[in-house]
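Please go through the protein record below and explain what the tokens say about the fold. Record follows.
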Amino acid sequence: MGVAEKFNIANSHFPLEKKVLVTCALPYSNGPFHIAHLRTYIPGDTFVRFLRKIGQDTAFVCGSDEHGVAITFAAEKEGGSSRI
């Protein structure tokens, strides 16, 4: 039994003709990474893996970095690095 049959989507409209875009936010470097960051990435990653498994053309983009320059300047001002 394939994934489509297991989840009863064999006769549905999947895969869609158009590519699906799934996004999630980037973490801000205003503190250390912690377990709560996972609540952003795991659901999106799981959903994308499911869509790909059923044959859906899917792109997964983890946010964009509009605030990167400000974070870099703040880190350098404090004598640190903006790199993880």
About this structure: The first strand starts at residue 20 and ends at 23. The chain has one domain: 3-77.
